[in-house]
Amino acid sequence: MADQKQIITRFAPSPTGFLHIGGGRTALFSWLYARRHNGKFLLRIEDTDRERSTEPAIEAIFEGLRWLGLEWDGDVTYQFAQQARHREVADQLMATGHAYHCYASPEELDEMRAKAKAEGGPMKYDGRWRDRPASDAPAGVKPVIRFKSPNEGETVVRDHVMGDVTFANAQLDDLIIVRSDGTPTYNLSVVVDDHDMGVTHIIRGDDHLTNAGRQSQIYKAMGWDVPEFAHVPLIHGPDGAKLSKRHGALGVEAYRDLGYLPEAMRNYLARLGWSHGDDEIFSTDQALAWFDLEHIGRSPSRFDFAKLENLNGHYIREADDTRLADDTIALMTRIDGWNVDADFRSKLIASMPGIKERAKTLLEIAKGADFLRSARPLALDEKAAKLLDGDTKSLLARLLPRLEARNEWTASGIEDDVRAFAEEEGQKLGKIAQPLRAAATGQTVSPPIFDVLATLGRDEALGRIRDQVA
Ligand code: GLU
Predict the structure, then answer these.
(1) Which tens digit of pLDDT belongs to each residue from 231-252?
(2) Does the beta carbon of 10 sit less than 6 angstroms from any atom of ligand 1?
(3) Residues of the chain above pLDDT 90, percent
């Protein structure tokens, strides 16, 4: 066997905002790959942008990953804390002739920029300090350190998704690896951290593909093994444009607050850009058994909100009733100020089979549970109010004594009474059940009405009917 090394992946977000849905998917792919191969999934917070990195954003990343069920191994690495080590590597590159001090002034760089612009190409540093002796250094100027990138030949990134991506070395100019204030730059930090963390597989967005070329050169200059790369195409919106705010929810926490289940998100995100035959619905265990880098698609995937919603509905129907009740209560307590007691919780659990049939999100479960939270006298919605006219009210008034006479308050007992009553009245069951539903829930849709009445309990159910016929 060629390579028996333990597989180590990592997720390396910059904590400058919430955990983006694209980041969530990258993390999921890295997690799946590591777990599938009994490897490790590490987390590195790339907090070197001191202005934009914030503590709440770091917390949001932890929260988002935990909610998605993507636990990382070991301690979190903070990139900023590794600066001394990054500088040490820059010094080694200097010592081995792979890097040099550059004293080019801002004016000189402006000239290079203007020249590149005139020629219609990207800004390229022309290498003017590459081979100059230290004795040429101007007094009082703090130099940057540039990486001496090879001028000839090619750098090939063997990417598991994109295939072999070839960069002509002449196109990659000498990158600044340490700024004049002594701070290391992004590409150096990433290489050093990935090396020091023992990362074997870098799975990330394809906006980093060019960086992979530059980073490969740094690995080689240090004599380090270049990790395997898998650059995943970015996520686009339904209209084909790069996913942005205007498409709707962008952060993982927004999906949590919209009432999506983490297992539905995992299924949806795994399928977004990766495939296993025609399988659309698969469990996390199946994804763990199947996930590979070879079936990540090369073209951007489109985020399909309707598909996610349907998938979520599927997972809701499969989920345990108590868990759904607890998740709904926790969510609504947090975002909507719910303050409910144990009695409500048991009623919600009892009603869950009927409620979850129609719900695609926890928010819809909450809405379906409105009838349990409403206080008498119920405010009727428009349709329910329309349904309860004079005729239906007198129908309910005639039904009431029969229900009041019932001792055993169960769904099937209530159903027996209502059926017998409908027969006496020469009405179809629905003609009685609909106004009953309107009176008991204030709405025209609800879980099965006899279940609703049983769950509400005798006093509350009868009280609600009485309120409407009085
Ligand atoms: N911190 C980078 C980002 O948020 C990712 C770097 C990497 O994965 O190499 O885009």
Answers:
(1) 999 999 989 888 888 887 789 9
(2) no
(3) 93
Beta bridge partners of 301: 235
- One-letter amino acid at 101 equals H
- Provide CB contacts within 8 A for 277, sequence distance 6+: none
d(CA 470, CA 462) in angstroms, rounded, equals: 12
195 lines ligand 1 (CB under 6 A): no
CB proximity list for 350: less than 8 A, separation 6 or greater:
451, 454, 455
Instruction: Give the sign of the dihedral formed by CA 465, CA 467, CA 469, CA 470.
Output: positive
Angle between helices 411-425 and 429-441 (to 10 degrees): 130
Sequence-ordered list of residues with C-beta below 8 angstroms from that of 255, at least 6 positions apart, any chain: 21, 249, 265
The H or E element that residue 381 is part of is: none
Closest by alpha carbon to 324, among 282, 281, 353, 344? 353
Cross-strand partners of 168:
154
To the question of pTM greater than 0.90 for the whole model, the response is yes
**137 C-beta neighbours (distance < 10 Å), count:** 13
Q: How deeply is 68 buried, as exposed, middle or buried, from its count of CB atoms within 10 A (0-12, 13-18, 19+)?
A: buried
Identity of the amino acid at 230: A
- Distance, CA of 26 to CA of 32 (rounded, Å): 10
Average of pLDDT values for 134-151?
A: 95
Q: Is 13 in the pocket of ligand 1 (CB under 6 A)?
A: yes
Q: Ligand 1: distance of its center to the CA of 46 in Å? A: 7
* Cβ-Cβ contacts under 8 Å for 43 (sequence gap 6 or more): 10, 11, 12, 65, 72, 76, 77
Nearest atom in ligand 1 to the alpha carbon of residue 11 is 8
Q: Are strands 40-45 and 77-78 parallel, antiparallel or unpaired?
A: parallel
Give the pLDDT confidence of 440-467 residue by residue, as tens digits: 999 999 999 999 999 999 999 999 999 9
In this model, does residue 169 exceed pLDDT 50? yes
Q: What are phi and psi of 355, to 5 degrees?
A: -70, -45
CA 204 – ligand 1 centroid, Å: 7
